[in-house]
Amino acid sequence: MSGDCVVGPGGRRVLVEDALSEYGDFLVAGKGVAVATRECYLRHVRTFLSELADRSGAVDLQAVSALQVRSFVTERGGRYAPESLKLTATAVRSFLRFAWMSGWTGSDLTGAVGTVVTHRSGRLPKALTAEQMHQLLASPDRRTLTGVRDYALLLLLSRLGLRAGEAAGLRLEDINWQAGTVTATVKGGGTLTFPIPRDVGQALVGYLQRRATAVGYREVLLQVRGEPRPMTRFAVTEVVSRHAAAAGLGTVRPPAASLRGPSRAGRGRHPGRGWRAARPHHRPGHHGLRVLRSRLVGSTGPAVADGGRR
């Protein structure tokens, strides 16, 4: 990176204009793109970096999170035409790949951009409002094991922005409670690590306290009826559709932008604002830690309080 970097308490920062200049040179010299394409990509990347920059116009690329990347794209789903949103996603993905290869970012964040789906209507589904999200989360009957599981699942999808397959693939060892993070395997075999918001952590602990213990599976989300096998992405989608219908919301299916970004409504324009990073005082108590630790020891580790199936 150029010499116009500033080292501050938050890490290594670079001026947005300097980052754009080096990326623009790479597009022309390294990729051989046309000048018009270069300017188009730079316009979208400038918007992305500007939302992350501080008042001095500098951004700490090492501190950029997967949540911020995914939020930037999904929050534009209701305002951009599908083709424009695809171009935004392509430009941001290209910049993040360049940043990763250049050692600017702490991890490869290209997978966080996600895939932009063009619907037959020509528009992406609008995000659920805060009230609609409240209705959806109120649908599961948390007096039952199924309801506790479904509530935790809906929070994983909405608060962390996970896709159906990513949620279904979560394993017990993917939860790092000491660090307050959960790591998901994304399309292509890569991984993304997310902070665990307080409500998500509490919901996971509540579910893990009651789900089957003596099973040979490491997946977090298990079926309730019959043998407790891991849920598939199709089962996850069915859960979302069922509760959306029960809440009177019509068809809501992951990984639609309508579910991946709903709880961000009304929380400000900054991509990361409104998402609680898991700090010590945001985590469930010591009992919750013991629950997760017992689950991480082994698939047939010591049992915890089990409310049973109701």
UniProtKB/TrEMBL annotation:
InterPro entries: CB, DNA_brk_join_enz, Integrase-like_cat_sf, Integrase_catalytic, Integrase_recombinase_N, Integrase_SAM-like_N, Tyrosine_recombinase_XerCD
Keyword S-adenosyl-L-methionine: no
Domain Core-binding (CB): 14-100
Segments of skewed composition (Basic residues): 266-286
Segments of this protein annotated with the region Disordered: 252-286
GO biological process: DNA integration; DNA recombination
Identification of the protein by name: Site-specific recombinase XerD
Organism: Humibacillus xanthopallidus
